[in-house]
């Protein structure tokens, strides 16, 4: 496969002098440059090997030319002089570069007309050592999307973690063979990031921009840890554990802005919903693969927030355990759905029903109020139906944020007709959360 961002080949091979990789978190290297450690693993999974038309396999990754390149304003790549190196017999490499002298950096490994790529977080710093996640077809697709994000002028608001959370081997197959697919994916991430930024600016007290920058830095640290975990992963289970840790770490990063667990879940749900809405013109396989990824992210956010609000409402340990079990069931259903919209919706509705049943049988909670509020919100012409109608297809940041605010205000008003005091706030948030994702 010969990608559109082909950069110069025929780079002189440098003697294979690379250190064996130690897959660790970022750390100081007392240097005026950043040190990037990585490995080319084109066959990390069977699906990944199909995502690129390549003769390079895990058995012949030795001696690949590796270099850093900067993404220009039109999305093309320009090699950063002095960064060239080669892979060792295991496909591993170490590369040094001055990250203060360039921005929007992609790492490229190439040989005989085939390229694999990965891209760096904007938060990398000189004097630090970073472990890049394995470079393969999926990382290549992520880097292609990144070049389109840069070309659109949105690199400051679309984080590497956004690409990471939405990219899959299935989507990579199409993106690596279609410039249109990469453009659609990037445009969808841009829309989602704009909607999220507006939500956060409306919810964060004080200097919202400053706090969002701090959250982005915290999210970058989570990203660095995730990439190191992926580099060390051996099994699919290892990668699933790493992904869960990555998502939960991201939620904690947003919490540093002062958002509650419920607000972080709303922001995550809104971001994911707009992303999928904006993917409307993409092929079904890319859209369904993205929907699966986004729904998994939303499920972790929802579990954390529902657990927090249920506890605040006085839920028993039995109910808390039921929430955990329903969350596991939700993710199992999402993974089995193949990203089909109807099946994803059913999975979230089942989660809502399982948690609602546990709450309705919990004598520690004001169950009569919960049943009355939840029933009215869930009715065929109730608040939840009106909310879904407002947001199901929109990609406009203001329209979507207005719908979320209207939904939240209406549930608060309804709740106050049934219950008062501190429990009313927790109850309202709990009902709202149970109607997200469905």
Keywords:
alpha+beta; 438 residues; 5-stranded antiparallel sheet; 56% helix; elongated
How would you characterize the overall build of this protein?
The protein has 438 residues and is α+β, with helices and mostly antiparallel strands. The chain has 15 helices and nine strands. Strands 3, 4, 5, 7 and 8 form a five-stranded antiparallel β-sheet that branches. Strand 3 (65-71) and strand 4 form a beta hairpin. The protein is elongated and about 70 Å long. Mean pLDDT is 88; it is low at 1-25 and 45-53.
Short description:
The protein is an alpha+beta fold and 438 residues long. The chain is built from 15 helices and 9 strands. Helix 9 (284-312) packs antiparallel against helix 10, helix 9 (284-312) runs antiparallel to helix 15 and helix 14 packs across helix 15.
Give the helix/strand layout:
Elements: E1 27-28, E2 34-39, H1 46-50, E3 65-71, E4 77-79, E5 85-86, E6 92-97, E7 105-111, E8 114-119, E9 128-131, H2 137-151, H3 160-166, H4 169-175, H5 179-203, H6 208-232, H7 236-255, H8 261-278, H9 284-312, H10 317-336, H11 341-360, H12 367-378, H13 383-391, H14 397-416, H15 422-434
Parallel strand pairs: 2-9
Antiparallel strand pairs: 1-9, 2-6, 3-4, 3-5, 3-7, 7-8
Helix pairs in contact: 2-4, 2-5, 4-9, 5-8, 5-14, 6-7, 8-9, 9-10, 9-11, 9-15, 10-11, 13-14, 14-15
